[in-house]
Amino acid sequence: MTEEALLASVDPAGPAPEDGELRQYYFIRKMQEFTQNRERVLGRKMTACVVTFGCQMNARDSEKLSGILSLCGFAMQDKEDVDFVIYNTCTVRDNADQHLYGRLGQYHHLIREDRSRKAAICGCMMQEKTAVEKIRQSYSFVSLIFGTYNLYCFPEYLYRIYHGEKHVIELWDRSDTIAEDMPVRRKFPWKSGINIMFGCDNFCSYCIVPYVRGREKSRDPEDILREVERLAADGVVEVMLLGQNVNSYGKNLDTPVSFAQLLDAVCKVPSIRRVRFMTPHPKDFSEDLIEVIRRNPNAARHIHLPLQSGSDRILRAMNRHYTKEQFLALARHIREEIPDAALTTDIIVGFPGETAADVDETIDVVRKVSFDNAYTFIYSMRSGTPAARMEQVPEEEKKRNFERLLQTVQETARKQTLLLQGKTYPALIEEENDQVKGFVTGRLSNNMIVHMPGDASLIGKFCMVRLDDCRGFYYFGSNLGLA
């Protein structure tokens, strides 16, 4: 059913339905009445802001939060000087926690000026009991807290805090519900993320995700394809299939479907000109998946393959289930089968017990694979994970090894970028360039950024661009017209 049909099917004067989806649309109707009344009092629409920390899945969840708030009658803003703000949190690294606390402190000043303002927090960090307790003790002005399993209940929680409840804290340990039919307010009209699965069963020893996102649950492929078709009909030309480990997609369905099969089907949806995915795991990156990417020109030539470490000893401690040589063999095979694909990776430095020799092994992998880019992180201890109980590496040692690795990553990435000089590719134009007047910024299939002459009328369209001037990790190019 459409949003309009769902809203029309509920009676706001009657009792709330028991059904999950209809129940939430009932509370959206109730909130519409509330915001309309407030608008008459204020002389303006109520305003709201969604602040996102973390991964692409969090960004997609924030589009749902924005969609719900918009349908409830809030005017969405980019800045936090609003009537209602919700922080969608990440807990993979400690710096995300600290950013949240800083933002909460700033918003508290706004609440002191206007007591009608309200703050909410949701997402991965709220599945950690210690974090929730800190919020309750130190940031008691926060009206609403909920986690990752019950985001679809947001309309009901919103209604409760605006109808008499000072604090609403709803934290679930698990849920089998996959509610993807809630309102969505996309950030970009021409591209969209699509959740294909939730949770993770890998339990890497450093990672908190399986504990805060739960075990793997896959959406039915028919539902995913219907969503892709709706997006295509709405003008979307690029989609990104999202999951903590997309390679595991479909294993827990009543009729198992592989990720390769799903990707192949999505690539065949008319009008979808580019299909990305994030994130695969090296241990189960299948031959079928490589073949699907190879034969579908609209499958993005960008494969993000998280390495984390090049040391077999550290990989075992991380519970990654592959060796250095297995990773190298996979990378070589991908380069052979899909020569125009860019390979990027994630690397952690300073994992418990890591030595300079272990980092040398990682640097060796970086040089042999020649990653097109790498996202390098200093290990951040997460309470509740096995790695938190291991012997930690001194901070100074982490920093020294991080700098060594970063230098190698930058060297290899520059060399890979230079290989594209003078070549011509289609680029999806994403925005006007705010640094160079008369230029726009686009993204190639391999995820490379390129700046070229153009104006706002090109945003959301594909242009052919010749890569003329390499600037390290991006290009300036010549716009050769629409692709």
How would you sum up this structure, described in words?
With 483 residues, this protein is of the alpha/beta class. It folds into four domains: 3-170, Methylthiotransferase, N-terminal domain (Rossmann fold); 188-297, Transcription Regulator spoIIAA, CATH 3.30.750; 301-419, Transcription Regulator spoIIAA, CATH 3.30.750; 424-482, Nucleic acid-binding proteins (OB fold (Dihydrolipoamide Acetyltransferase, E2P), Beta Barrel), CATH 2.40.50. The chain is 37% helix and 21% strand. The chain is built from 14 helices and 19 strands. The protein has helices at 3-8, 20-42, 56-72, 94-113, 129-138, 154-161, 209-213, 221-233, 259-267, 287-295, 312-318, 324-337, 356-369, 395-418; strands spanning 47-52, 75-76, 84-89, 118-123, 142-146, 168-170, 191-195, 197-198, 217-218, 238-242, 274-278, 302-304, 342-349, 373-378, 424-432, 439-444, 449-453, 462-470, 474-482. α13 links the parallel β13 and β14 (373-378).
